[in-house]
Amino acid sequence: MIYKDKRRAAFKSGDAKANTLDPEEVSRFNQLAEEWWKPDGAFKVVHSFNETRVEKLSQTLPAMMDRDSAAESPLDGLSLLDVGCGAGIVSEPMARLGAAVTAIDASEQNVLIAGEHAERSGLHIDYRHALPEDIARDGVQFDLVMSLEVVEHVADVQVFLEILSTLVKPGGALVIGTLNRTPISFVKAIIGAEYVMRWLPKGTHSWRKFVRPSELDAVLLPRGFRVTERCGVDLNIFTRKWSITRSMSATYLQFYTRDAD
Questions:
Q1: What residues have CB less than 8 Å from 136, skipping those under 6 apart?
Q2: In this structure, what DSSP letter does residue 119 have?
Q3: Residue 191 and residue 205: Cα distance in Å, rounded?
Q4: Which of 6, 44, 145, 242 is the most buried (most CB within 10 A)?
Q5: What confidence tens digit (pLDDT) does each residue in 223-244 have?
Q6: Helix, strand, or coil here: 169?
Q7: What structural domains does the chain harbor?
């Protein structure tokens, strides 16, 4: 469980001691940074998964902000923070939807790769080698905050979520994408993806660090957030296609709105 230590003080904006960085995880992703944009690289399966994820985000985020998802730039005029952006595989599509994107990552190599790719693509994205606590200390808030496939890699999930909650403007939206801690996710994400199919490098995930939806709610709901939608993102092993599903037994997306007051 991730909430055993009741003695831990809740994060407060400006807390110099807050630290969500896990050095081992950052080292692993630094070594893999060059693989992000390779069509047949280590993250090949992530790109096919990402297409389905981005399609869902492109429909849901505008609706959460009372925008028309069919518009040419449905996120125009909105600020968006991508926490744990990797090499920008979600940051770039959000920028194309019109959002003013700030994207941060604990891996300096990821940020360098992301910036170079965005420049070649003609996109302006404010990439920073930073942790969410660095942004929180500046007192900046965003209309939209997303952190996708990141919470299972941080040092302290509760502190990480508390920090994210401070970065969302009142009336804004927060999206968390991660892996549920279930027997099914162990079979699919660890045994299947890393050892049998070898879609991901071995050691990419630790099942004990997967996070249940109820654990996200336990931190965020008392802090003025409400769930507006939740869904799974699942792979059909026969067609090799990803789809949005009702089942959240493995990979899932959870959408929150922060109260306006």
A1: 13, 14, 18, 163, 166, 167
A2: H
A3: 10
A4: 145
A5: 999 999 999 999 877 777 889 9
A6: strand
A7: 23-258 (3.40.50.150)
